[in-house]
UniProtKB/TrEMBL annotation:
Residues 244-333 form the Glycosyl transferase family 28 C-terminal domain. GO terms for molecular function: hexosyltransferase activity. It holds the Pfam family Glyco_tran_28_C. Coiled coil: none annotated. InterPro entries: Glyco_trans_28_C. This is Glycosyl transferase family 28 C-terminal domain-containing protein.
Length: 345
């Protein structure tokens, strides 16, 4: 494996599968020009990344929380709200700074941590940070991190960005991309496919979906089959396990990317997330006619589902081609190369 003079530290957040899926799409292009070292915040994520990228170094930061630290309900409106005043947090910050120094990092990729973005920039390392979808306007930590970053990158097209986002001019919009096959499969069945990885999602949605008197396939979790419902379980490649045109899903960016690029007609039920990120994404997709937005407060109403099904059936999926960017990884690598040229040492 070649060794490059420019080393990038790449932070992968431990919550949700989207961060590691994004790394699987972007890192191969980075490896052609740079040495990549992963940084994570949990041993579980370290194990996952080492399984996916056995040839790359992966460093794990110690926890900033102690067993005696009281949990704080996040409101996302005060500075460093997610960083407790503890020795553990001090040790975590010190470990991160030492990693920047030990690897002589030329640039830090943040996907995504506002506090580490700020720390890296304060240590003299330029940062490219993923744009955290949703309304981040009231979070001073997030805003300052955006200001500290040399550039932001967004894994979706510019025209579905919140038009009020103040940092759009410094954001590189990569479009939708996916490491999975985007070859569209022939659909031979009528009905609905529900994509969910949680029993909670099944419990919340299946009772009302059953009332629509349509066949239902559930992808992503196990359950008991009935004459109307078929559980397909967890799958490695979702692209070959979607038997219907209409798909009900949450609003995570990677899942939306995969399903839209497969030509599916989506009814998006956003899950509660910081900054209402899934709600904002679903609303923007709906406004441009790419998907149907089903607010969670309406999911128990069969009439709303009937209307959503009618609207979804009329979506022109050929328009989605304009959202795809098969060259996202190469463009991301080129952006990093340009940033390094600005900060040659």
């Amino acid at each position: 494996m070649p060794t490059f003079t420019n080393t990038l530290l790449y932070y992968v957040h431990h919550q949700g599968a989207g961060h590691i899926q994004r790394a699987k799409s972007l890192v191969p292009a980075l490896e052609e020009q740079f040495t990549v070292v992963f940084v994570v915040g949990s041993p579980q994520m370290q194990t996952q990344l080492q399984q996916e990228f056995a040839h790359l170094a992966c460093e794990c930061l110690p926890s900033k929380w102690t067993d005696s630290t009281e949990s704080v309900e996040r409101t996302f409106d005060s500075a460093f709200e997610g960083v407790p005043c503890t020795r553990a947090a001090t040790q975590r910050a010190l470990t991160f700074i030492n990693l920047l120094s030990a690897y002589q990092a030329r640039l830090f990729i943040s996907d995504v941590s506002a506090e580490l973005t700020i720390l890296a920039r304060g240590a003299g390392v330029p940062v490219i940070m993923q744009r955290h979808s949703g309304n981040t306007d009231e979070d001073p930590t997030q805003i300052f991190a955006y200001e500290c970053a040399e550039a932001l990158y967004a894994p979706y097209p510019k025209h579905i960005e919140d038009p009020q986002f103040a940092f759009a001019d410094k954001t590189r919009f990569l479009g939708f991309f996916s490491e999975l096959s985007t070859n569209r499969q022939d659909v031979v069945r009528r009905g609905i496919t529900l994509v969910t990885s949680s029993g909670e999602g099944v419990d919340a949605l299946l009772p009302v979906l059953e009332q629509l008197q349509l066949p239902i396939w559930v992808v992503g979790c196990d359950g008991t089959n009935t004459s109307q419902i078929t559980f397909l379980g967890r799958v490695d490649d979702i692209s070959v396990h979607l038997p219907t045109d209409i798909v009900v899903c949450s609003g995570g960016n990677n899942l939306l990317s995969e399903l839209l690029l497969l030509g599916k007609k989506l009814i998006v039920v956003p899950q509660p997330r910081p900054y209402d990120e899934q709600d904002y994404k679903a609303m923007q997709l709906a406004e441009h006619g790419y998907a149907i937005h089903m607010p969670r407060q309406q999911i128990s109403q069969p009439a709303q589902w009937q209307q959503a099904l009618q609207q979804a059936s009329s979506i022109d999926t050929s328009r989605v081609n304009a959202l795809a960017n098969p060259h996202a990884a190469e463009q991301f690598a080129a952006l990093i190369k340009d940033l390094l040229c600005l900060h040659s040492r």
